[in-house]
Specification:
By secondary structure, the chain is mostly helical. The chain has a domain at 54-137. It contains six helices and two strands. The chain is elongated and about 80 Å long.
């Protein structure tokens, strides 16, 4: 038996166009509800403008993880005898990134947040564990 009432999911999926421009609005201003405006209401209410400097700091955990990874790779490349230490360093960087993703809120995690929190932490921890095991199994070079 089908009900004639529209489902809630259907109303959420429908997108509305921009609100019509009031007749007394100046010609240069974008219409209300325009996504280009920082104060235009979004699907979850009014949006706040993000300062450019604040957005840079939001990516700090990701930048630290990338720098640590780059340093570990350079360390391995400098001399072929540091493969074990470099592998362990990369594993450590992945564990620190997983901890940062677990501890930081969504808006502060930056690009470390690509999926749900537990999925990100599980992937980073699994990769770190795999590299830790591989690094411990490598023979020590003299």
């Amino acid at each position: 038996m089908r009900h004639s009432a529209p489902s809630a999911s259907r109303s959420r999926r429908q997108r509305r166009g921009p609100a019509p421009r009031p007749p007394d609005a100046p010609a240069g201003d974008p219409p209300r509800g325009d996504p280009a405006r920082a104060d235009a209401p979004g699907p979850d209410g009014p949006r706040r403008a993000v300062a450019p400097g604040r957005q840079r700091w939001q990516q700090l955990p990701y930048a630290i993880a990338l720098c640590g990874l780059a340093l570990a790779l350079v360390w391995m490349r400098q001399s072929g005898q540091n493969v074990r230490g470099g592998t362990l360093a990369v594993a450590g960087v992945l564990f620190v990134a997983a901890l940062a993703r677990l501890a930081l809120p969504e808006r502060r995690a930056g690009m470390l947040a690509s999926r749900r929190r537990l999925a990100d932490v599980a992937v980073l921890t699994a990769l770190g564990t795999g590299l830790l095991v591989a690094g411990l199994m490598l023979p020590a070079q003299h």
